[in-house]
Amino acid sequence: RAVFQGNHVKDQDGNWALFADLGSSPATMEAARAADAYGLLPGHAVQQSDAEQAYTQAWLTGDETWVRLPRDQWPEAWEGMDDPVCPLRLALYGHPDAGTDWERHAHAHVTSVGFEPVDNWHSCYWHPEHELFLVIYVDDFKMSGPPEKLRRGLELIAQGLDVETPKDIEGQTCLGCKHERW
Prior knowledge:
Elements: H1 29-39, E1 45-50, E2 66-67, E3 86-87, H2 98-112, E4 116-117, E5 124-127, E6 132-137, E7 140-145, H3 147-158, E8 167-168, E9 173-174, E10 177-178
Antiparallel strand pairs: 1-7, 1-8, 2-3, 4-5, 5-6, 6-7, 9-10
């Protein structure tokens, strides 16, 4: 697993690099609970899926960032170099802009396949044709609605994002809460 070591970031002059405030707006606990409530309606269900290596599915934007790779990850052409660096192209966990870039990437895709943003509720979407409510919290996709439509919703998401096969919410953890039915 590779992460961006954000505690040791310097600019081109060797000074500590400063980044603008984070721009991501993850879903809230209330949004996750709304998905649960919608999934409890008669004839509805809730499923959860994770995006695989979510951040690296998005291109890194903003200020150009250069990184040192661990020696065991160097291409053969680098052998004999003292301290090679390379541009960071993909959003990498730990980089201050990675969450924002992933969020924009996920938003662009889900809206392109028919999910509509819920007004004033970041990272929440409604698919009017399939009556699906989708909440995205970083790399967690929680979706509720008619069970026969949940599969179609995931197929739409998987057209542009690498996501795991969804699981029934029973026994899963989302936003620190373990789901149990009784």
